[in-house]
Amino acid sequence: MEKMRNVHIAQGLFDIQHSHFPRKDVFDKYLCDDSLTIKFRIRFRNSITYDESQANPDGASAISKQSIQEDFGKLLKVPKFSDVTVVVGDKEFPAHKNILSARCRVFAAMFDHDMKENKENVVKFDKEDPVIMAEVLHFIYTGNVRNVGKLATDLLAAADRYHLDALRFMCEETLIAKLSLENVGEILKLVDRYETTRLHKSAMTFLATYRSKFVATEDYDAIMESLSPALLLKVSKLLMQRP
């Protein structure tokens, strides 16, 4: 039996299709009892792999959403590509018809028809507060509100004027969180004036819970007198119910 020998045959990175892999006749002369033992020295290289199971689509979506919000917010600060100007008093806001129209049906109505605003590319609001308009435009572009905590009441009115349901929702949630005996009178006025389903329900629940304390407040009579007949009737019936 021929003694086994250590022979270096080839070196490289091989697979079945590798053109440099040794041919069969090369191995024949190294056979020992019709057997051949092949030893491999394998060297691994570092590589980067992507494991889909470790992916976080929610995180990626949140990052993408934040990026879009930031980018659209920048459009309000750069007048270079604007095609319409929103004027409130002496304050001018460069804006974009397509964004305003897509996000707000009030603006869409202005630009969809042969109106003065569409022809002159200027939209004027003589009675609007520049601070509130700045917040409204920021919301239209980004979907966020920066000062809803301080401006919830005014922004709720703006949401009603411009038919911005998502902004209305944010304002209602803020006011619901702050509902108290000290401000329930103002909240009832808002409920009376605007379409606020969630705020209306929360105010009624609050009055049902604190009816005796509400009736005992100094402003009780003034609050009740300020309500519309329909809301006055509803609140009166609620207060007359037994706990």
From TrEMBL:
Q: Which Gene3D superfamilies match?
A: Potassium Channel Kv1.1, Chain A (3.30.710.10)
Residue stretches making up the BTB domain: 82-145
User: What is an example of a Pfam family matching this protein?
Assistant: BTB
UniProt-listed InterPro entries: BTB/POZ_dom, SKP1/BTB/POZ_sf
Q: What is this protein called?
A: BTB domain-containing protein
Q: Which organism is it from?
A: Trichomalopsis sarcophagae
